[in-house]
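This week, think about what follows.
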Amino acid sequence: MEALAFWKTITMDKKNRLEDILSLLDEHQVKYCAVGGQAVNAYVEPLVSLDLDLAVAVDQLQQVEALLSEKYRTERFPHSFNIVLPDSDLREQIQTDSRYGEFVKDAEPREILGLTMPVARLQDVLRGKVWAAQDAERRASKRQKDLADIARILESFPEMRPQVPPEVLAKLI
């Protein structure tokens, strides 16, 4: 089974909602990139997840939220808005934390589970994972996943180790 077909099976995305959203963003010339766990998957051995986190250029956030809200139900959270997709278990989140918006300018097309899309640079993905792992407001289980993603990156790219603060590295041992 091809990677994209597998991901679509896992997310129950039978109506190509993921491709619809990415096409909509491209059609409206939105500058965006994948961040989070799926971005990690673009650089290291992939893990299956129902989540897709995207960052959008800060000056386009309001436009994107309005655009997606016209077509889908969205839910607002302190640092993101989530798109609720009918007929799909895919959990798509748009980061509203302006720090992630900076990642967009240096993003490059990469493959994530069989689909090519803009992905944040590896150092930016790692930086975002460090921020998430240090965010005390995130659920403990999410922070554990962030630590696992940091470990996955460091196993494949040990030269990135100096970019991880000692207090985060200590949690990996």
Remarks:
- The domain at 3-172 is CATH 3.30.460.40 (Beta Polymerase; domain 2).
- The radius of gyration is 16 Å.
- The longest strand covers residues 51-56.
